[in-house]
Amino acid sequence: MSTPRSRARAADSVVLDDDATLHAMGYPRKLTRRFQAFDNFAISFTIINILSGIFSSFGFGMNAGGPRILVFGWIGVSLMVLLIGAAMAEVASAFPTSGALYFSAGKLAKRHKGAWSWFTGWLNFVGQIGGTAATGYAAATFIQVFAQLQWPSYQPTAHQTVLITAVVIVLQGVANTYTVQLVALLNRISVWWLLIGLVVIVGALIVMPDHHRSASFVTHFENNTGFTSGLYGGMLGLLVTSWTFTGFDGSFHMSEETVRATVSAPKGITRAIGYSAVAGLVLMLALVYSIGDYAAVAGAPAPPVRILVDGLGLRTAKVMLLIVIGAMLFCGLANLTSNTRQIFAFSRDGAMPGSRWWHSVSARTRTPVKAVWLAVVCSLALVVPGWWSHTAFTAIVSVNVVGLFLAYAVPIFLRLRLGDAFQPGPWHLGRWGRPIGWLAVVWILLSSVLFMLPQASPITVDSFNYAPIALAVVLLVATVWWFATARRRFQGPVSYGRPDEVAAMDLV
């Protein structure tokens, strides 16, 4: 029978094991290790955020494949993303650091470690900054949809959307400035907000509408993309699920603040994806079977909101919309948290201009406060073009998803190339590691092509997919920078000394 004293000794040994792992990788402990396993899961679950993802992209899916792709595409793509998450989780167990993707890329590469680490880090950084900006913009958009329902005379403008987005991101920055305990608490709340909100919305859509679609409606196909090929239109519809399942590297980035990180972080990644897949399918089915006039819903400014209004009535729909807006705000908050830990770690290894600023930690809160506000400023910089043009804003943040997934692919590929020389952590896939890893890499490459293809016809300045251009600009800048100066000063993840030496540098 365990006593409080024995449990305390066990907890101490866990912390020491975590610290020993960090010291073995060459880093002193500077962050507070207050995230439990549930907190680590919560951050990825919140960033994936099925309410935010599905409500933001459902309308696109209605026109690119319809119910058949929305439902069966969700099932298929979710399984592929789970493979990506499992392959990433195996790497996370071996290298539980805030640097996550770029750190593991540098450690797993046989040659050119600095280059692999450099490009992975910048893809991850740009993808996360774009994600914070895009999530804030989506929240601002739905806040104004609510305002229109509440006050019919209200007419949203581009300027108002940008201002609301800025307020949202700044407030999320303020929340991230305080202790990691507050961030953990907010992420715990967000999990229950999402799950209870899901039950409320799905329950209302089952009970309240006068009519539901027949069971066979799930096979209905629509192609309103403007392209004549139904196959192409349906393939574009797969992006609905891919857009939703991003940011699960958040659990990896929080490793240095998680207890038993070598196990908790990989479990956080895989559980967040698995639970989101199941819960998202339930929400997707509820929305699909509640569609009334298909053409009217598909052509509405916010199709899921139109489904809620038609099926539940205006008053109830507004309550449901508040649940969705709350989920979007939690999503942005968690995304910013993950973003700041990547900046903190990337700067710790000297990869960013002004690195000595961005990897400093507040003595009072034990959080990387300066990294928080760098992430806020960079996200706001991406939002500013929306003041003049929504197309310009979309063009800039379009690198979000493709940048993140390419950053996911690099350490997984390098782990596969390393073969039997890879030393797994306590959480590993065993003999399934290689086949799962190869399937993950192949799917990332295929889905990345989809992300960069035209998504509407006719192709105009407003409908053009700017993701390839945005990605090319990021890679061009990173490449020029690398060959001009970075390759001489950045050799990949650094070590601050032997384990005993870095242990003496611990600040917590």
Automatic annotation (TrEMBL):
Coiled coil: none annotated. The chain crosses the membrane at residues 37-60, 72-95, 116-140, 160-179, 191-209, 229-252, 272-292, 312-336, 371-388, 394-414, 435-454, 466-484. Its main location: membrane. The keyword Transport applies. Keywords: Membrane, Transmembrane, Transmembrane helix, Transport. Signal peptide: none annotated. This is D-serine/D-alanine/glycine transporter. It comes from Streptomyces cyanogenus.
